[in-house]
Amino acid sequence: MAERSVYSAMAEGLARQGHVQSATEACFASLAADASDPAIHCLLAELMLAGDFYREAIDHATRAIELDPSCAPAYFELGLAYDRAGGMWDQSILVWHELAEVEPSLVTAHVQLGEAFSAAAFDDEAIDAWRRALELDPTEARAMYNLAVAALKKEGMATALPGFRKAGELDPSQDELFFALAGVYDDGNPAPDPSDVAPKRQARLDAAGALAFEEDYFSAAGLLRLILDENPDDADALGLASYLYLKQEAVNEAVACALRALTIAARVPTAVYTLGVALSRTPGLSRNATRVFGALAKSAPGQAMPHVLYAESLLALQRYEQAGRSYRRALSLDPACVRARFGLAAVLLTEGEHAEAGYEIRRAAYHDTRRQGLFWDLYDAYRAGRS
């Protein structure tokens, strides 16, 4: 048993560091000492899946479940293996349904269950699963994207567009773009207390950006007010103020601040961003949003999200061919952009390319589950529960 524990710990440590081959060897050494450890079979399934060895991943995940039917990470790996192997939707549905019962609060289980139902042409059951996911977490963007795609299939783009817009608002990558444009990054340190900020313009602006990043909009607004009291024509402060208004659903005020900033300095990227977003949310002004997002995409050609925003505005105008080109440009810059993959899937559906659209949705699921790191959360919880 001691020998098994040494190899088990070694396998886990190597797997967390990304040393797949060494971790796999340590897993097999652990199983040679004790083949009845479901956690090691589960870990092997994850390693096999990382190398696209789907059959082997299925075998080890299945063995883990046979040894312990409550092993949540094994269901997770088994479901992913079936999904990525393709053509095994009946098995996939059963596995995600089982995981949803073992871990009923796991939102991703319901999202994946819906996608498996959809791939098997059980559209109503898929919609129910995605709605359940949103009941558990109203900010689950992927469930909202899937519901928008389902609406597109049933009733066309006009009905689907509100869903795509809502999903975009839930997607955290859009806020990440704003802060990248503002030069605000997470350095691991908390935002300063507003009372400790030096009475200088740059210090106040930096602190306001950090506070906005942490969603302390009230304190950020207070610092911006001090800047604008001294200089009402500070374009950078106006751009950040526009974002704060946007986060509080004050669209008219956001537009006013953004336009004022761009009147002072025509290329303030934060103001261009907030103006485009505000216009896209205003009925009848989506055409104007397209022009603004087109300018943003040109000013930040190396970032994926401006191209996504531009594509979404084109989608609203039913200019599908141009939207498809912009989505593909975004994916060439960031293949893991879930939002671009769902958007491209929508374009492909309008062109009757259902198989290709399904592929893009599966790739979106692949990148989304990798980003979340859910396997290790489930694995650690399972290990802790058995200790």
Describe this structure in words.
Helices cover 78% and strands 0% of the residues. The model has no long low-confidence stretch (mean pLDDT 91). With 387 residues, the chain is mostly helical. The protein has a domain at 173-372: Serine Threonine Protein Phosphatase 5, Tetratricopeptide repeat (Alpha Horseshoe), CATH 1.25.40. The protein is built from 22 helices and no strands. The relative contact order is 0.08. It is globular and about 70 Å long.
Structural topology:
Layout: H1 2-16, H2 20-33, H3 38-50, H4 54-67, H5 72-85, H6 89-102, H7 107-119, H8 123-136, H9 141-155, H10 157-170, H11 173-182, H12 201-213, H13 217-230, H14 235-247, H15 251-264, H16 269-280, H17 286-299, H18 304-316, H19 320-333, H20 338-350, H21 354-372, H22 374-386
Helix pairs in contact: 1-2, 2-3, 3-4, 3-5, 3-22, 4-5, 5-6, 5-22, 6-7, 7-8, 7-21, 8-9, 9-10, 9-20, 11-16, 12-13, 12-14, 13-14, 14-15, 14-16, 15-16, 16-17, 17-18, 18-19, 18-20, 19-20, 20-21
Low-confidence stretches: none
In CATH terms, what is the fold-level topology of the domain at 173-372? Serine Threonine Protein Phosphatase 5, Tetratricopeptide repeat
What is the share of helical residues?
Answer: over 70%
Biggest sheet details: none
CATH class of the domain at 173-372: Mainly Alpha
**Count of beta strands:** 0
CA radius of gyration? 24 Å
Q: Write down the overall geometry.
A: globular
Q: Please, what is the CATH homologous superfamily of the domain at 173-372?
A: Tetratricopeptide repeat domain
Order of helices and strands: HHHHHHHHHHHHHHHHHHHHHH
What percentage of the residues does DSSP assign to strands (E)?
A: under 5%
The tally of helices reads 22
Distance between the termini: 14 Å
The computed structural class is mainly alpha
Mean pLDDT value: 91
What's the CATH architecture name of the domain at 173-372?
Alpha Horseshoe
